[in-house]
Every structure is written in C-alpha cells, then in structure tokens.
C-alpha cells in the first residue's frame, strides 16, 4: 500500500475510534435524558418522511378539502396538522434537552481531566510544556473560543443517527414515487461528503496551529485579572503592553482560522452545486411529468417533500466535530503522558517509624543539562530534628521534593528500613508525610479549612486544630480575625481578609502540625519561617521542638540561628552533602558551615539580614 493510502487508512481508523468514543461518552448524559434525546432523534428522523406522506395525502384529497367534504377531508387534514404540530413540539424540546445533555457530558469530561491531572504520581510531567499544552487542549474550558468541549461533538453523533434515519425513511418514500431519484441523490451525497471531510482535515490542521498562541494569550489574559500579577502590572505600567500581547497572540491564533473560514465560505458552492443541480433537475422532471399528466400532483408533492428532506440531511456537514475530536484525542494522549508506572506485583508493607535513607541518590530535572543532586547518602532517623542548609540553588528543596516523592530519583534509591520506596505507592508514602513548601498555596477558604487541608483525608478534628494553632503561634492571629476560625482568607470572599506573608506562614505551619497531630509521622519544613520576625520565629521553633512528639522533622532554613537547635545538620553544596553533624560539632570542625554561621552572626549583629548569598562563602 502507498504511503498516502496508509495514512488515509490510519486516519480512517482514528476517525472510527473517535466516533465510538464519542458515542460512549453519551452515557454521561444520564439514562433518562439519553432516552428522551434518542426518542426525540428517532421522531425527528421519521418526521420528514411522515411529512412527505401527509402532504401527498392532503394534496390527493385537495378536492374534498376545497369542496368541504368533511368525511373525506378530515383524516388527511388531521394527519397533516398532527405532523406539523409534532415537528413544532420536537423543535421546542430539542434545545433545552441538548443543552442539559451537553453540560452533563462536558462536566463529566472536566471531572475526568481534573482527576487525571491531580492524581498523577509525580509532578515532573506537569512541568513539561507539551503536557501543559495537552492539558490546555483537553480541559474543556473555552475561554478564547479555540478550545473545544466534548459535549457538542458527542451530541452530533446522535444527530448523525437521526439524520441517517431521516435520509433512509425519506429515501424509502422517494423510492415509492420516483425510485430513479434515489441513486442520483446518493451519488451526489457521497461526492459532497468527500468535500466535507477534506475541509474538516484542513480545519484540523489550522486549529492545531492556533494552540500555542492561544495558550500565550491566556497567560496574559489571566495576568491582568489576577490580584497578585495585577500589582506588578500596575506598578510597572504593563497594562497596555499586556493588552497588546493578548491581541498579538490572539491574532496569531485566529488569523489562520479566519483565512480558512473565508476559503471555506468561498468554496461552499461546490457541495451546494453537487447536491442542488441533480435535485433541481429532478424537480423539473417531476413538475413536467405532472403538467403532462404522466404523474399526479400528489406524486409531485411527495417527491418534492421527500427529496427536500434528503437534501437537507445531506447538506449538513457531518464533520463539525473538529474541536471535540481534538479535545478527546488530547485527553487520550495526556493519559499516556501521566500514566503511573505499572504497580508493583506485591505492594510492600511500610514499616512503622522507619529509618529513611537516600542511597546514592542523584537527580536531574527533565530538559536540563546538569544534575542538581549527585550521589547523596543521607539517613533520616525516626524522631530526630534534622536541619538542611546550603546556599541558594544548592538543591535543598529538590531533596524535599524527592522525599515527598513528587519526583523519583534519576539515580540511586530511597529506602524505609531498607525497603525500596519505589515499591510503595507514592500516595501511601505521602500519608506518612506532612510538608510545608516554600511556595505554599494560599487557598481562598476559611482559616479552619486552610489548616484542616493538612490532612483532608480524615474527619475534621477541632481539638487538633486548636492545638496545631497554638503550636504554630496562630492563636494571636485568630483572636484578631472577625469570624475567628471561620474567617475566609481572601478579600474576594464576603467577610474575607488578607493576611500578611508572616501570618500566612503561621497558618501553613499550623496546617502541617495539624497533619502531624492527626497521624503524619514525618514533618518536612522548607523555609517555614522566612517571613516571620526573629522573635516569632524563635517562639515557633521552641514550640515545634517541644510539641513535635515522636514526629521526625526535616527543616530547611537559611537562618542558621534557627537550625542550630536541630539534632543534626547537613550542609548541601554542589549537589552533595559536604558536612554533617551537630551545630557545635560543625563549628568545631571549622568548615563552610562554621564560616556561614560566623558571617550570619556578624551581619545580624550589624543589623543586616542574616541570609547568605552566593559568594559570601568560599
Ligand atoms: N522544576 C525545575 N526544573 C528545572 N530546574 C529546577 C527546577 N526546580 C529547581 N531547579 C533548579 O535546581 C537547582 C536547585 O534548586 P532548589 O530549589 O532545589 O534549590 P534550593 O537549595 O532549595 O534553593 P533556595 O535556597 O534558593 O530555595 C536550581 O539550580 C534550580 O534552578
């Protein structure tokens, strides 16, 4: 088979698969609604043929109708009236039923995408631009009119069945009156279908080209309405510039579509000609036969009505599903990209309070040229408070992301009491963990919800909430909030407030401590107090050390005065652990840690920030 033939076959198979998938998605409309829609489709499909018969019957009894012969005229009149009223009623019902079904199908699809993207094991794939592009294509959230939702395309499949029914039933009526017209219309219909499918293929290609600029336009459109970016947009005077960017990207996205649209409009005459010429010829032939007396007026009326119905069914482009197809194909591709690794044959039982080891762990972010971590060997003992320090970019946060299994090591392994964690599902492992990330999320929810999200998997425990708030030093903040625990932490919510950076950090600390109080064994804190003033920070750590109970704590901080309280401190540098020991041991060792500590202490004494920058130490 030639390459072109093979490509056509592949495309035909893919199209068939799309249609089957679209038909499957109809389920999401619900049994009742789907039954109603199917009944409506069948009735609409039979309507043209019924109308043709009723019209022909009425025409054949026209004398009786005109002369007022009620006995003869009443049946055809009634039949015609019923058909007309039925057509009207079906038309009224169609839109609300379709709308309802479409929203249900789209809603189910959005839930699928949310489920898929939020439960993939690691976040590495989400950082890849091609995965973000797939999410954008499949999320079914049309903001710039480029994205498609599955609903319309899925319903088109049902309509196609209806149209087929209309064509066949009207075709049967037509065959009864003028059989020779059937092959004429079938050939014309097939020729038109060829043109439609060629046009659909071209539209698909054009649509693809608009994806990247569409995504860029979205970035700027979101930036100008978001309060956080909005601050910079105003301060830097970026408003006009941002609008210009949006327009620029939208033009790039829409220009090819508009050009394609114009070309399509200009070539609409082709299918119209193919279908209309034989139809007009047939009309002329039948009308001539009626005038000559070779056919009755009733026959002519039936032929006109039935062939018009077939014509209407043929002139509607059945490929008007490009966006839907694209949206669903992107979803299938996304499933492959985010697929979890095959589950281990036997899920290993996680030991209680294990010793965690990084064994020769190396890690390199996808798409980068240099490993961030290189043969790290680190032991985290149950119940200890381990401090991790290092200069900016040393890889501290990356270490934590590996511990939380948001990425898997690219070399070496993580073990718990010798058990390779790769054999334990990430979600099972994460239940043992509570993490405060440097770039934590500020949920626009109440304080109570924001804290309880630390362990959303258990019923809310008010006593644990109160205790966690005390441990995190949040009580003073809570006392000043208008609705206490119920105060929404977003000004965009009624009665909501905005917290300062430091207050937010206390909320997030409480979130992590709540998780520990409700079952997490390992507390990981990445710069949890960077926004706190020195006194509050000191109090928080005092309380943390006193109330952590049996939990293991891994703490990253730039402030060595904070970390000095840790049971053990490791210094990360150049992707390796370069020093490890207690604070006094490391000071006595007189290495890089001792130098960093001395520099920070001196700066702090002189009233400067106590953070260190690259270049401060050798
Ligand atoms: N998602 C990512 N993709 C690619 N590179 C990354 C990613 N995240 C971090 N990096 C790179 O990895 C290196 C280590 O970053 P990491 O955030 O782990 O350092 P850090 O020690 O926590 O720094 P800081 O103290 O500034 O928070 C940096 O060079 C950074 O540019």
TrEMBL record:
Pfam families: ABC_tran. Residues 356-599 form the ABC transporter domain. The keyword Transmembrane applies. The chain crosses the membrane at residues 26-50, 70-93, 164-192, 268-288, 295-314. It is found in: Cell membrane. PANTHER family: ATP-BINDING CASSETTE SUB-FAMILY B MEMBER 10, MITOCHONDRIAL, ATP-DEPENDENT PERMEASE MDL1, MITOCHONDRIAL. This is ATP-binding cassette domain-containing protein. It comes from Hamadaea flava.
């Amino acid at each position: 088979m030639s390459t072109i033939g093979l490509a056509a076959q592949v495309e035909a198979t893919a199209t068939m698969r799309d249609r089957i998938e679209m038909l499957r998605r109809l389920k999401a409309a619900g049994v009742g609604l789907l039954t109603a829609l199917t009944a409506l489709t069948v009735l609409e499909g039979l309507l043209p043929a019924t109308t043709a018969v009723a019209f022909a019957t009425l025409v054949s009894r026209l004398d009786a109708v005109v002369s007022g012969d009620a006995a003869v005229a009443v049946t055809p009149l009634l039949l015609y009236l019923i058909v007309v009223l039925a057509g009207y009623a079906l038309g009224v019902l169609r839109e609300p039923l379709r709308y309802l079904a479409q929203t249900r199908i789209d809603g189910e699809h959005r839930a699928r995408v949310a489920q898929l993207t939020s439960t993939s094991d690691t976040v590495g794939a989400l950082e890849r631009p091609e995965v973000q592009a797939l999410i954008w294509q499949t999320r079914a959230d049309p903001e710039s009119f480029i994205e498609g939702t599955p609903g319309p395309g899925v319903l088109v499949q049902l309509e196609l069945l209806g149209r087929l029914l209309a064509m066949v039933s009207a075709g049967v009526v037509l065959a009864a009156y003028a059989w020779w017209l059937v092959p004429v219309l079938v050939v014309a219909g097939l020729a038109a279908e060829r043109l439609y499918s060629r046009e659909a293929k071209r539209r698909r290609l054009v649509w693809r080209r608009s994806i990247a600029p569409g995504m860029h336009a979205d970035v700027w459109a979101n930036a100008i309405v978001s309060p956080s970016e909005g601050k910079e947009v105003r301060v830097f005077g970026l408003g006009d510039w941002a609008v210009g960017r949006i327009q620029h990207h939208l033009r790039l996205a829409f220009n090819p579509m508009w050009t394609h649209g114009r070309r399509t409009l200009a070539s609409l005459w082709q299918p119209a000609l193919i279908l209309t010429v034989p139809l007009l010829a047939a009309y002329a032939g039948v009308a001539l036969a009626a005038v000559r007396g070779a056919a009755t007026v009733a026959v002519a009326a039936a032929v006109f009505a039935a062939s018009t119905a077939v014509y209407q069914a043929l002139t509607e482009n059945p490929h008007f599903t490009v966006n839907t197809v694209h949206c669903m194909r992107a979803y299938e591709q996304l499933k492959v990209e985010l697929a979890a690794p095959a589950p281990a044959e036997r899920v290993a039982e996680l030991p209680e309070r294990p010793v965690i080891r990084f064994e020769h762990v190396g890690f390199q972010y996808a798409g980068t040229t240099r490993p961030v971590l290189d043969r790290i060997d680190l032991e985290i003992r149950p119940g200890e408070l381990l401090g991790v320090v290092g200069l900016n970019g040393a890889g501290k946060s990356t270490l934590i992301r590996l511990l939380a299994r948001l990425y898997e090591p690219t070399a070496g392994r993580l073990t718990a009491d010798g058990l390779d964690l790769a054999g334990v599902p990430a979600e099972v492992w994460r239940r043992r963990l509570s993490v405060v990330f440097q770039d934590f999320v500020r949920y626009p929810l109440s304080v109570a919800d924001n804290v309880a999200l630390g362990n959303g998997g258990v019923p809310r425990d008010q006593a644990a909430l109160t205790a966690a708030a005390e441990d995190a030093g949040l009580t003073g903040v809570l006392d000043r909030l208008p609705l206490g625990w119920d105060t929404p932490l977003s000004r965009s919510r009624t009665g909501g407030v905005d917290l300062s950076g430091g207050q937010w950090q206390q909320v997030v600390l409480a979130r992590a401590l709540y998780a520990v109080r409700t079952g997490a064994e390992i507390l990981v804190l990445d710069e949890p107090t960077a926004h706190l003033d020195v006194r509050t920070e000191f109090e928080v750590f005092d309380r943390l050390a006193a109330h952590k109970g049996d939990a293991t704590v891994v703490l990253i901080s730039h402030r060595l005065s904070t970390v000095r309280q840790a049971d053990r401190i490791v210094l990360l540098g150049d992707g390796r652990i370069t020093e490890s020991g207690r604070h006094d041991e490391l000071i006595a060792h007189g290495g890089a840690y001792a130098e960093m500590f001395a520099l920070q202490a001196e700066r702090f004494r002189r009233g400067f920030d106590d953070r260190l920058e690259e270049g401060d130490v050798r």
